[in-house]
C-alpha cells in the first residue's frame, strides 16, 4: 500500500467508480449550449404538453399514440377549430331561421277581423307585404317576402282583397293567386232591381237571376213596403257597395235596405209624407218618378210640385217614364202605341201614382218630393240640352214651350 496524495480524496469519480480523469475525452457528456442562460418567459416547456402515460396500464397507449396525435393535430391547426365553431353557429342560424319563419307563416290562434286592402296598379309583393304588416294581417313583412321567394311569387293584380288578421302566409298566397275577391257595386240613382241584379251577376259567386228572384220574392222586406207588395224597387239605397267573399244575396239586400232606411229616417219620411197627405210608400213612389222625370237637381222640386198638383186635381200624371218602366225600358222615345199600353203603370190611361216606385230615387229626389216648392205648375218639357226643363200652368204655355224645344232640336 503506497502513500496517497491528500489532494486525490476530492477527485470526482465516474459512473464505474473510476476517476473522471480515467475516462477518455470522447466519452464525456456534452454541455448544453443553453447552460447558464436565462429561460425565455414566452417559451413553454414541451413537457407541459406531454402527458405521462403508463405503458403498463390497461390498454393505454404511449405518448406517441393516437391520443397524442389528435391533440397535436388540433394544436397545430387552429383553423379546424374555427371551422367547427362556424359550422355549429351556421346550423343554429339555419334551424333558428326555419323555426322563426314557420312561426310567422303559421301564426297561432284564430283568425282575426277582416281587412280590406286596395292594391293599386303596378304594386308588387314587397309593397303589399308592408301594407299587410301595417294593417295587422301579418306580423313581419320580411318573413312574408322570404316565404314568398321560397314558395313562388303569385303576382299581384290591381283591385281589392279581403284578408283576415292572423292569416297564414299560405292563405294569403291563395287569395292573391285567385285575384281580387272584393268587388265594388254601384247602385245608381234611377236604377231598378233588374239593373242591379244584372250588375251583381257579373261578379264571381253571384247569379243575377237569383238576386232578382230574392228581391221580388218578399222574403227580404223593407219597413216601408205595404202588405201585399213584394217588389223592392225604390227601396234600396243608392251609392257604392263592396261585395265581400262569401257574402250572400240576402246580406247584400239587407245592406241596401238599411241604407235607404237611414236616409229616409234622416228626412223624417213618416212625418213629411203625412204633411203632404200621402203615405210614406206613396212619397217614395213619387220620388222615384221625380228622379226619372227631373234628372238634374234644379228640376226635381218643380217636378214634384207638378205631380202633387195633378194628384190634387185627379188628373192623369202623363209621365213617359212610367210607360217605359212597364215596358222594361230606361229612356227612349214613347210612341202613340206605347201610350195605349194596358198597364197599371201607364199614367196616360190611369190616374194616381203607379202601384210601386219605378226606380231608386237619389236622396235629393226624395228630399224634393217631401219638400216641394210652392207653385201651380201642371206641365213641363225639356227645353235645353243641359237638361233644363220649362214649367207652365196652362196647356197653351206647354204648347209654346214644346215649340221652343222643337226649334232647338229637342222635340
Give a structural overview.
With 411 residues, the chain is mostly helical. Among the domains are: 114-178, Endolytic murein transglycosylase (Dna Ligase, domain 1, 2-Layer Sandwich); 193-377, no CATH class. Helix content is 42%, strand content 7%. The protein has helices spanning 66-76, 78-105, 125-134, 141-151, 169-178, 193-200, 208-217, 249-266, 269-276, 280-294, 297-313, 320-326, 363-370, 395-407, and strands spanning 114-119, 159-164, 183-187, 239-243, 379-382, 389-392. Strands 1-2 form a two-stranded antiparallel sheet. Helix 2 (78-105) packs across helix 4 (141-151), helix 3 packs antiparallel against helix 4 and helix 6 (193-200) packs antiparallel against helix 7. It is elongated, with a radius of gyration of 50 Å. 25% of the residues are buried. The model is unreliable at 1-22, 46-51 and 53-63 (pLDDT under 50).
What features would you highlight for this structure?
two-stranded antiparallel ribbon, 411 residues, 7% strand, Dna Ligase, domain 1, 42% helix, mainly alpha
Amino acid at each position: 500500500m503506497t502513500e496517497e496524495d491528500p489532494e486525490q480524496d476530492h477527485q470526482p469519480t465516474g459512473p464505474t467508480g473510476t476517476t473522471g480523469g480515467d475516462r477518455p475525452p470522447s466519452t464525456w457528456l456534452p454541455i448544453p449550449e443553453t447552460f447558464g442562460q436565462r429561460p425565455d418567459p414566452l417559451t413553454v416547456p414541451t413537457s407541459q404538453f406531454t402527458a405521462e402515460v403508463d405503458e403498463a396500464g390497461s390498454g393505454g397507449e404511449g405518448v406517441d399514440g393516437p391520443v397524442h396525435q389528435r391533440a397535436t393535430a388540433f394544436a397545430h391547426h387552429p383553423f379546424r377549430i374555427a371551422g367547427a365553431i362556424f359550422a355549429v353557429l351556421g346550423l343554429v342560424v339555419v334551424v333558428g331561421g326555419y323555426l322563426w319563419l314557420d312561426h310567422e307563416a303559421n301564426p297561432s290562434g284564430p283568425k282575426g277581423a277582416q281587412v280590406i286592402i286596395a292594391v293599386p296598379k303596378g304594386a308588387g309583393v314587397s309593397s303589399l307585404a308592408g301594407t299587410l304588416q301595417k294593417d295587422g294581417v301579418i306580423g313581419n313583412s320580411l318573413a312574408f317576402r322570404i316565404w314568398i321567394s321560397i314558395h313562388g311569387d303569385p303576382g299581384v293584380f290591381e283591385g281589392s282583397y279581403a284578408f283576415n288578421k292572423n292569416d297564414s302566409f299560405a292563405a294569403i298566397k291563395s287569395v292573391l293567386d285567385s285575384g281580387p275577391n272584393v268587388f265594388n257595386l254601384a247602385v245608381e240613382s234611377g236604377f231598378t232591381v233588374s239593373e242591379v241584379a244584372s250588375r251583381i251577376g257579373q261578379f264571381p259567386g253571384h247569379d243575377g237571376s237569383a238576386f232578382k228572384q230574392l228581391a221580388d220574392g218578399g222574403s227580404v222586406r223593407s219597413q216601408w213596403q205595404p202588405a201585399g207588395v213584394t217588389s223592392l224597387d225604390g227601396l234600396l239605397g243608392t251609392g257604392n257597395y263592396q261585395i265581400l267573399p262569401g257574402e250572400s244575396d240576402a246580406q247584400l239586400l239587407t245592406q241596401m235596405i238599411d241604407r235607404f232606411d237611414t236616409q229616409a229616417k234622416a228626412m223624417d219620411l213618416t212625418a213629411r209624407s203625412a204633411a203632404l197627405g200621402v203615405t210614406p210608400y206613396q212619397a217614395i213612389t213619387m220620388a222615384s218618378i221625380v228622379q226619372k222625370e227631373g234628372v238634374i237637381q234644379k228640376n226635381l222640386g218643380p217636378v214634384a210640385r207638378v205631380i202633387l198638383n195633378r194628384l190634387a186635381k185627379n188628373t192623369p200624371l202623363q209621365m213617359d217614364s212610367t210607360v217605359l218602366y212597364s215596358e222594361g225600358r230606361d229612356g227612349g222615345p214613347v210612341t202613340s202605341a206605347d201610350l195605349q199600353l194596358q198597364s197599371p203603370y201607364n199614367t196616360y190611361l190611369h190616374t194616381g201614382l203607379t202601384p210601386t216606385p219605378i226606380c231608386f230615387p237619389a236622396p235629393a229626389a226624395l228630399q224634393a218630393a217631401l219638400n216641394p216648392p210652392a207653385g201651380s205648375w201642371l206641365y213641363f218639357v225639356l227645353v235645353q240640352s243641359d237638361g233644363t226643363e220649362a214649367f207652365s200652368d196652362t196647356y197653351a204655355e206647354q204648347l209654346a214651350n214644346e215649340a221652343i224645344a222643337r226649334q232647338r232640336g229637342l222635340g
